[in-house]
Amino acid sequence: MVTQITSFSRSGLSDWMIQRVAGVILLAYFGFVAYTLLNGVGYASWKALHANSAMRIFTLLAALSFAAHAWIGLWAVFTDYLTERMLGPRGNGLRRLCQIGSVLVLLVYLLWVIQIIWG
Amino acid sequence: MLQVSIYRYNPDVDSAPYMQDFQVDTEGKDLMVLDVLEMIKADQDPGVTYRRSCREGVCGSDGLSINGKNGLACITALSETVKGNKLVVRPLPGLPVIRDLVVDMSLFYAQYEKIQPYLQNSTPAPDIERLQTPEDREKLDGLYECILCACCSTSCPSFWWNPDRFIGPAGLLQAYRFLADSRDTATEERLSNLDDPFSVFRCHGIQNCVNVCPKGLNPTKAIGHIRTMLLNRAT
Fold first, then answer.
1. Strands (E) located in chain B
2. CA nearest B235 in A: which residue?
3. Please, which residues 59-118 of chain A have a Cβ atom closer than 8 Å to chain B?
């Protein structure tokens, strides 16, 4: 068995399921947002929508889903292309740098979303 | 005259691989790609190197990249692959080239070995063979026919990038062949060995394997079954 410490859940099966559930949540969220925008929305109604607790929770859920989905997806990309096999020994350092960097960026985005919707 | 371009590389002589062009008179016949290679080897350059054995799609020796698509040279007719009178033959992609069209399949076999491709049964052996119902036997159809030609695994980008950690479509098809076998009792151990981020879950379902399998098998479907078994076991 191949062990990994930088994948999202450390388990291939769990990552796979989380990414699919997150994908459905993101589809539902952006579908809802697109539907709302296409039906015409002004500042007041947009502000009222996002002041609603249900919408705040939905947005937070979408942000969490985005972070998890991106972590799992980017981790797969980094472990495909930034490897010792592809780039020689420097591939290992570069991969770890990108993995840590991407997780930190996603964390910042997540905290920023929380500040915007709950702040 | 058919224009044939063949990948050539002899590490003892060549500093880098190159493509060599040949002209072959097929006399208007719809030959197999292997026939064309044989004609070149016999009449033009005996040094052209490739694997072959049964010449009827059973042994899986002559898996090659033929006009950009993996397939068995012995059962790929010119009429189904040649466009614009040009035939380009390269070794299977993603594996180290030993010489010309011959690749080192050690990584492919190492992945096959990992899935323990043999029946395991911890119960006492019966006096007669272990019996199966016709329904249980049917579950192996579409799985046991694999000839390990490596056309599928070497068409899979996930296998190109991680041939040491991703089992690959050929190995996973065989993994499911034993998971689906009613006579095998090592299901739990087999699933445990596959439950990591690479062995199974590097498959992103792009189905290159299905597209190229010369036996018409569906590794993606088998991988889906393995995922379901892992999911049912863990949730």
1. 2-8, 18-24, 63-66, 69-72, 86-90, 97-99, 102-103
2. A14
3. 76, 79-81, 83, 85-86
